[in-house]
UniProtKB/TrEMBL annotation:
<dbReference type="InterPro" id="IPR054129">
    <property type="entry name" value="DesT_TetR_C"/>
</dbReference>
<dbReference type="Pfam" id="PF21943">
    <property type="entry name" value="TetR_C_46"/>
</dbReference>
<dbReference type="InterPro" id="IPR001647">
    <property type="entry name" value="HTH_TetR"/>
</dbReference>
<dbReference type="InterPro" id="IPR036271">
    <property type="entry name" value="Tet_transcr_reg_TetR-rel_C_sf"/>
</dbReference>
<protein>
    <submittedName>
        <fullName>TetR/AcrR family transcriptional regulator</fullName>
    </submittedName>
</protein>
<feature type="DNA-binding region" description="H-T-H motif">
    <location>
        <begin position="35"/>
        <end position="54"/>
    </location>
</feature>
<dbReference type="GO" id="GO:0003700">
    <property type="term" value="F:DNA-binding transcription factor activity"/>
</dbReference>
<dbReference type="GO" id="GO:0000976">
    <property type="term" value="F:transcription cis-regulatory region binding"/>
</dbReference>
<keyword id="KW-0805">Transcription regulation</keyword>
<keyword id="KW-0804">Transcription</keyword>
<dbReference type="InterPro" id="IPR050109">
    <property type="entry name" value="HTH-type_TetR-like_transc_reg"/>
</dbReference>
<keyword id="KW-0238">DNA-binding</keyword>
<dbReference type="Pfam" id="PF00440">
    <property type="entry name" value="TetR_N"/>
</dbReference>
<feature type="domain" description="HTH tetR-type">
    <location>
        <begin position="12"/>
        <end position="72"/>
    </location>
</feature>
<dbReference type="GO" id="GO:0045892">
    <property type="term" value="P:negative regulation of DNA-templated transcription"/>
</dbReference>
<dbReference type="InterPro" id="IPR009057">
    <property type="entry name" value="Homeodomain-like_sf"/>
</dbReference>
């Protein structure tokens, strides 16, 4: 009897397999050092097949950025229950962020280090993701202000600035946590929550810190 032919793998599954290999390679080796030969070997396919599916190294890297950015955004949004109090919502969002970046260190390296250090079009791809996260955090902080008092003291510009600062701190802390042994996602989230919430809570209750006169 002849050998039974194995079922052909669907294109979408094969493509994701290649991208998984690419994220791992780009994350660990860097964009410049990563080779299509290495990615193909890790994915268990031929290099021509990688080019056939994903065109070029630049296109492959851009596709990895888009996929991992969407995955991170979905994780953060899914982690927040809008029915919770403001501090619990912020805690949940931060924890979801740090859990995702800890569980996907190669993806975070692609988004936070590799993409930003190699210019366009990669910087724009990551910038779009960051804008969405900032907008989401802006909504959380705005909701906290409305919860604290019906006539929020925080101006829209102040809320937007706080969201930018919080996201920037989360990005830096995630890189540190991934590089530091024995720092859990919960610990990283608690560190940022302790750093940020005390200040935010004072602002919500009209107790801002005022800089001295020049």
């Amino acid at each position: 009897m002849g050998a039974v032919k194995s079922k052909r793998m669907p294109r979408a599954v094969r493509e994701q397999q290649m991208m998984d290999a690419a994220v791992r390679t780009f994350g660990q080796r860097g964009y410049r050092a990563a080779s299509m030969d290495e990615i193909a070997e890790l994915a268990g396919v031929s290099k021509p097949l990688v080019y056939l599916y994903l065109n070029s190294k630049e296109d492959l890297f851009s596709a990895c950025i888009r996929r991992e950015a969407q995955s991170l955004l979905e994780a953060v949004r899914a982690g927040v229950d809008p029915g919770l109090p403001a501090d619990a919502q912020l805690w949940a969002g931060l924890r979801a962020f740090f859990v995702h970046t800890a569980e996907n260190p190669d993806a975070w390296s692609v988004l936070h280090r590799q993409a930003r250090s190699h210019g366009e079009p990669f910087v724009s791809e990551v910038g779009s993701m960051r804008d969405e996260i900032v907008a989401f955090v802006t909504g959380l902080i705005g909701a906290a202000a409305r919860e604290a008092h019906s006539d929020p003291a925080l101006a829209d510009r102040d809320v937007a600035g706080l969201a930018q600062a919080l996201v920037g701190a989360a990005e830096s802390l995630a890189g540190w946590a991934n590089d530091t042994p024995d720092v859990s996602a919960r610990e990283a989230a608690a560190t940022l929550m302790n750093f940020a919430w005390a200040g935010l809570e004072n602002l919500m209750h009209a107790r801002p810190w005022t800089p001295p006169a020049d």
